[in-house]
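Open question from group meeting: does this chain pack into something compact, or does most of it stay loose? Before anyone orders reagents, we agreed to write out a predicted structure and look at it together. Recording both the input and the output here so the notebook holds the full record.
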Amino acid sequence: MKTIKNIFLNDHFILVLIVINAFIIFLQEFDGVPRWVGYADNIFTVIFIIELTVKITTFGFRNYWNNNWNRMDFILVGISLASLVQLASGSEYLPLNFLLTLRVLRVFKSFRLIRFVPNVQEIISGVQRAIKASYVVIIAFFIFLFIFSVLTCSIFKNIAPEYFDTPFNSMYNIFRVFSIEGWYEIPDMIAERSSILNAFFTKLYFVVLLFTGGILGMSIINSIFVDAMVSDNNDQLNAKVEELGEKIDRLADKLSGRN
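Structure tokens returned:
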């Protein structure tokens, strides 16, 4: 029993299981895959349930739940239970077809690989800092996107209904323009359906839209996000430089005192 507990508490062993399970989930999406592949996925789900049970028994539920990675594991294993429920209930014959949809969520078990990425905690902390530093700019960007989506819809919905027939469709395609995806194809198509004067103002409108939203807006968000991501490293570097400067000052004072 103690040997089994040590095995399931071994992170390297769990990592190997997760990698194999991720490969099996990958194989399941191919046509003509043997049925044993699906059964193997269910076996891995049972193994992960055993792992979860061993950890809760060993550490206690409160200590187990206080760890963020354990909470993520618990949720992901819980999501994958739909596969076992489907297998046990025989949902092909019972009115439980919604389980077929939930079963797709088993792919999220592969998210457990994230915890084994080197320095992942520092990366997550950097992302959290970046989100806190840039959320105001992101909100302002989406307000800008919303305004121009509605404006573009009202102007071009009759000329290009395939792109701007509704505000939601307009928002999606304006964002495509911001990401420099088809930014010239859309105005060129509209220009072909318009008069020469309208074609000129259409192209000018989309150039301004691309410059303000795509080049300026996206660049500002990206720069703030990246700067916040690396700010912790900069703070550590500045602290080391200040510490080194203080040591140099003390050494200089000692040398001047000897003279």
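Observations to bring back to the group:
Residues 86 and 93 are 10 Å apart (CA to CA).
The chain has a mean pLDDT of 79.
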